[in-house]
């Protein structure tokens, strides 16, 4: 109890301290970087400065679907005061245009303690959103809790949907443009963060969902080493959701979008020219109407085009991981969010096991039916699918879509001798769970995106519950420790009384992040063992990563 009270006081103290800071004189920071002179702002919600909306790359106006180029050095002082343009074209509703294709900006948040004699470790955040939505703006991912732990935080943007992930097998649009945007952002950080007081030898890449998948692909990609540690939350390159569909990249996507917009042609390059001059909102809404999926792909090699990934990645080796610390995990109810707000009727026609199996495995009809039955019995027993099975359906989907893929990735990492792998399951349910709070869904466990509220300042999430604030303090401290030391709990403390033991080949330790932190081993063991067997049995039929 004493420990808890002390914590409450220190949290209240921090909050009041921020308020005092607000009334102080503001001195806007000016940084002389390789990119040029950049002026930022002193933050009003903490002891840090912020540089909002720094352009790091330029999109080609004549071909916004192609590769971007690095930003040229600024001639004058660049005033990094505003990140409102840091939003790539994406779908919100058919009536509202969201984003501008010139969206390759990043934000840098620097604690006031950073300077050339006190270089701070750096954390680069890659946002999620199924490669079709999201941004790194401050309103989505507020930095105040993380920078309070004396690390520099950078949030980046990359192009999304058709602008980021058309894969046409041509030098103009080779594929993975959004991931190449990320590479330019990482290079920018490597070149410039020293001038902000950042330690270029202590850079942690950190992302969730599509951001985690991106990071896993950076680990496999052919570019130079631009980071030292990685944190992957709820997503790796084996996540079925984004990467497993039977259809190959659609090389005629521009023709189809153009035709829908009344420009009929057989020439992909004419279609691209037309689309380059078409309003981004029209392109985005049309791609959505046509149910088009854009995601990372295996590229063909062309002269003078720097590739990102050129080999199917399911069997690729993780040479970059050797000696690298990894922090990785998932939320215990990842995909239950999909079902939480559905009504009874929705479940009547649901054929979720069949549909997902058919997406990922190349089985004939009999095999498919047999496999479906086995899985159905495992999760549902003899019950007929209905809203009564909502928890079991969520578990199946979570295991299939995120959790077992993450475990398959971990197995691959182990083979490549990382320094340490710190594994977690986030299972806390409180007032700052992102999805639950946004859609007012009560209940136990953590949905996809729910952990965000315990790392970032998000405007609509409450700051009034002591238990939530303690968990936030624990999470941000462990994450920051990992960024600083490659170890989330270098020593146990009142705040972090449990030592986080790394996973080994034989002992799959993980931290259960709940109202109490606890070390356990093999999360969801029987469910994961079921899928281990299932994948073993159906290896040959797996459609993973077909080119
Ligand atoms: C921009 O795109 C056009 C059309 O594909 C191409 O001709 C030009 O070389 C590109 N510019 C750059 C800088 O890549
Ligand atoms: C499986 O999916 C493919 C398309 O991806 C579809 O053509 C086929 O009919 C599906 N099979 C079954 C049995 O549903
Ligand atoms: C949230 O849901 C609870 C019950 O599930 C309900 O009592 C409450 O009014 C809801 N709040 C909002 C803002 O909809």
Class per helix and strand makeup: alpha/beta
| Mean pLDDT level | 92
Strand content: 5-15%
Q: Work out the number of β strands.
A: 16
- Main sheet specs: 11 strands, mixed
Ions, cofactors and other bound molecules: 2-acetamido-2-deoxy-beta-D-glucopyranose
Description:
Helix 7 (253-260) crosses helix 8 (268-276), helix 12 (352-360) packs across helix 13 (365-380) and helix 14 crosses helix 17 (525-538). This protein has helices spanning 2-22, 144-147, 161-165, 177-192, 210-220, 240-243, 253-260, 268-276, 280-289, 337-340, 344-348, 352-360, 365-380, 390-415, 434-439, 466-485, 525-538, and strands at 30-33, 36-39, 41-42, 48-55, 57-58, 69-70, 78-79, 105-111, 120-126, 152-156, 198-208, 229-233, 326-331, 421-426, 509-513, 517-521. The strands form three sheets. The chain has an eleven-stranded mixed beta sheet with strand order 3-4-8-10-9-11-12-13-14-15-16, sandwiched between helices. Strands 1-2-7 form a three-stranded mixed beta sheet, with no helix packed on it. It has a domain at 1-42. The chain is built from 17 helices and 16 strands. With 547 residues, it is an alpha/beta fold. It starts with a helix and ends in a 9-residue tail after the last helix. The site of one 2-acetamido-2-deoxy-beta-D-glucopyranose has 4 residues, from helix 13.
């Amino acid at each position: 109890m004493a420990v808890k009270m002390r914590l409450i006081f220190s949290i209240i103290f921090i909050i009041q301290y921020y308020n005092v800071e607000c009334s102080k004189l503001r001195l806007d920071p000016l940084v002389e970087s390789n990119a040029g002179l950049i002026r930022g702002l002193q933050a009003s919600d903490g002891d840090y400065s912020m540089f909002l909306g720094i352009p790091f790359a330029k999109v080609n106006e004549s071909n916004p679907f192609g590769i971007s180029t690095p930003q040229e050095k600024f001639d004058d002082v660049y005033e990094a005061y505003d990140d409102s343009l840091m939003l790539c074209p994406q779908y919100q509703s058919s009536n509202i245009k969201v984003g501008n294709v010139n969206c390759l900006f990043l934000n840098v948040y620097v604690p006031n303690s950073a300077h050339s004699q006190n270089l701070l470790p750096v954390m680069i955040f890659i946002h999620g959103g199924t490669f079709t939505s999201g941004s790194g703006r401050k309103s989505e991912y507020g930095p105040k809790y993380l920078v309070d732990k004396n690390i520099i935080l950078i949030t980046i943007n990359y192009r999304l949907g058709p602008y980021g992930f058309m894969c046409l097998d041509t030098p103009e649009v080779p594929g993975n443009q959004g991931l190449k945007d990320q590479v330019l952002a990482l290079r920018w950080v490597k070149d410039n963060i020293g001038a902000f007081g950042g330690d270029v030898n202590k850079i942690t890449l950190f992302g969730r969902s599509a951001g985690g998948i991106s990071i896993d692909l950076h680990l496999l990609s052919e570019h130079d080493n631009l980071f030292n540690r990685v944190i992957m939350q709820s997503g790796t390159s084996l996540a079925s959701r984004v990467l497993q569909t039977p259809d190959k990249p659609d090389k005629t996507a521009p023709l189809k979008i153009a035709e829908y917009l009344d420009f009929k042609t057989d020439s992909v390059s004419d279609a691209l020219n037309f689309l380059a001059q078409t309003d981004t909102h029209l392109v985005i809404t049309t791609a959505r109407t046509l149910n088009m999926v854009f995601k990372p792909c295996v590229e063909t090699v062309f002269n003078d085009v720097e590739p990102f990934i050129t080999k199917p990645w399911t069997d690729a080796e993780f040479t970059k991981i050797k000696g690298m610390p990894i922090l990785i995990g998932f939320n215990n109810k990842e995909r239950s969010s999909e079902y939480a707000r559905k009504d009874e009727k929705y479940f009547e026609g649901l054929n979720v096991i069949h549909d997902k199996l058919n997406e990922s495995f190349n089985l004939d009809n009999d095999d498919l039916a047999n496999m479906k039955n086995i899985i159905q019995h495992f999760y549902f027993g003899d019950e007929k699918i209905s809203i009564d099975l909502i928890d079991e359906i969520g578990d199946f989907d979570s295991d299939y879509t995120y959790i077992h893929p993450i475990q398959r990735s971990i197995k691959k990492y182990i083979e490549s001798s990382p320094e340490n792998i710190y594994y977690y399951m986030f299972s806390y349910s409180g007032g700052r769970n992102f999805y639950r709070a946004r859609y007012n869904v009560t209940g136990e466990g953590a949905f996809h995106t729910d952990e965000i509220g315990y790392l970032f300042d998000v405007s609509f999430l409450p700051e009034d519950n002591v238990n939530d604030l303690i968990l936030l303090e624990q999470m941000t401290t462990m994450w920051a420790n990992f960024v600083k030391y490659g170890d989330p709990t270098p020593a146990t403390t009142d705040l972090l009384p449990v030592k986080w033991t790394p996973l080994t080949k034989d002992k799959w330790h993980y931290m259960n992040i709940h109202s109490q932190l606890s070390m356990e081993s093999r999360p969801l063991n029987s469910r994961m063992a079921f899928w281990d067997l299932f994948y073993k049995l159906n290896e040959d039929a797996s459609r993973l990563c077909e080119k």
